[in-house]
Amino acid sequence: MDPDIVRGLLDAERAEATALLASMRARLTAVVDAAVDEHADDEHDPEGSTLAFERGQLVSQIERSSRRLSEIDAAVARLDDGTYGRCVRCEGEISEVRLEAIPATEVCITCAGRR
């Protein structure tokens, strides 16, 4: 794949992931603020468990999005150092079809199947 095209794809993914992460952090702040304002008692308040569940879901989504940003940054670093498109496990070539589908992938389909 053309490095300029790859960089464009990775930049677009990074912008999308960054915007999603900012949105989720804002939602988490709103949920935490709502819990404080409502004097939520998770054990006795029917809304308490809903707030706790939502907070847990948002924390998980924030963690996944943060990992995604790290994966994208690692792919950009591989692009910069000339190792993009090589599997980090077996050092074999990652197919262009896989790279088009998952531009930040670091493993070939064979190694991905071994996980």
TrEMBL record:
What is the organism of origin for this protein?
Williamsia serinedens
Where would one find coiled-coil regions in this protein? none
SUPFAM superfamilies noted in UniProt: DnaK suppressor protein DksA, alpha-hairpin domain, Glucocorticoid receptor-like (DNA-binding domain)
InterPro entries annotated for this entry? DnaK_N (IPR037187), Znf_DskA_TraR (IPR000962)
- Residue span of the signal peptide, if any? none
What this protein is called in its record is: Transcriptional regulator, TraR/DksA family
UniProt keyword Zinc present: yes
Task: Respond yes or no to whether keyword Cytoplasm is given for this record.
Answer: no
Which keywords annotate this record?
Metal-binding, Zinc, Zinc-finger
* ZnF start-end (dksA C4-type): 87-111
Residue span, Zinc finger DksA/TraR C4-type domain: 82-115
